[in-house]
């Protein structure tokens, strides 16, 4: 009896099928008056306005003039909802003409598109850590790997190449979004921050022992264009990847 109960509990504890499998099943049933796409669109608008932490089934339902329970009949949890939101914004990536035959140009284009998407929807930096199985995520994966096929790499090497460029991009965007948040929190833009910290930096340089900080202050470009910096640093990443491909060959 105890064994039967344990087996039942184990079955009960199994997570439901992924949201994409459940939506496929829904698609074979009768038409529904409340579409999950409309729910997702409303949730994205809320996240863009107030941040993803503000998104709840109750708030999304209120925005749509529906009851929260009506949403739960379509989407089982907030986890499902954020999965739908993330995949929906991936659909905004412009993949036209990719692959073009130039892996370097294509990967640079994908990285630039990802950076643009993160600035349009800053909350997505919280997601995408696990592989998504939504239609737009699948499209991005297939397109990205097609860009680096034919270079003599196995599938792990292809994934390494693509992921390295995209993870650099994610890190760059995290820094950019962090600066936006710092400005919001302190009321100082970066130029204002430099003026605020200037007297202490001058003191440090007078004390000596910081030759590279001195060079940064005296020689580095002041307030460089972030687009130019991104392209330059991405180019360095791609140079390294190209050299790695050559060594493997």
TrEMBL record:
Protein name from the UniProt record: TetR/AcrR family transcriptional regulator
Residue ranges the UniProt entry marks as DNA-binding: 56-75
Alphabetical keyword list: DNA-binding, Transcription, Transcription regulation
Cross-referenced InterPro entries: Homeodomain-like_sf, HTH-type_TetR-like_transc_reg, HTH_TetR, Repressor_TetR_C, Tet_transcr_reg_TetR-rel_C_sf
Domain HTH tetR-type: from-to ranges: 33-93
Molecular function as annotated in GO: DNA-binding transcription factor activity; transcription cis-regulatory region binding
Keyword Transcription regulation: yes
Gene Ontology annotations of biological process type: negative regulation of DNA-templated transcription
């Amino acid at each position: 009896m105890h064994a039967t109960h344990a087996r039942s509990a184990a079955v009960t504890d199994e997570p439901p099928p992924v949201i994409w499998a459940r939506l496929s099943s829904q698609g074979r049933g009768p038409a529904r008056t409340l579409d999950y796409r409309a729910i997702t669109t409303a949730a994205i608008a809320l996240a863009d306005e107030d941040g993803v932490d503000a998104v709840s089934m109750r708030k999304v339902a209120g925005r749509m003039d529906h009851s929260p329970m009506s949403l739960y009949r379509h989407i089982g949890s907030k986890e499902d909802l954020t999965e739908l939101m993330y995949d929906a914004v991936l659909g905004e990536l412009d993949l036209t003409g990719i692959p073009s035959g130039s892996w370097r140009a294509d990967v640079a284009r994908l990285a630039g598109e990802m950076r643009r998407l993160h600035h349009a929807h800053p909350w997505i930096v919280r997601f995408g850590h696990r592989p998504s199985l939504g239609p737009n995520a699948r499209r991005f994966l297939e397109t990205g790997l097609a860009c680096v096929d034919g270079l003599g790499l196995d599938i792990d090497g292809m994934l390494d190449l693509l992921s390295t460029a995209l993870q650099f991009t994610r890190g760059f965007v995290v820094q950019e979004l962090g600066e936006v948040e710092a400005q919001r929190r302190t009321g100082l833009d970066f130029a204002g921050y430099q003026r605020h910290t200037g007297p202490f930096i001058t003191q440090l340089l007078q004390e000596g022992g910081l030759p590279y900080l001195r060079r940064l202050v005296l020689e580095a470009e002041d307030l460089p264009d972030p687009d130019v910096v991104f392209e330059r640093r991405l180019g360095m990443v791609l140079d390294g990847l190209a050299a790695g491909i050559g060594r493997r060959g």
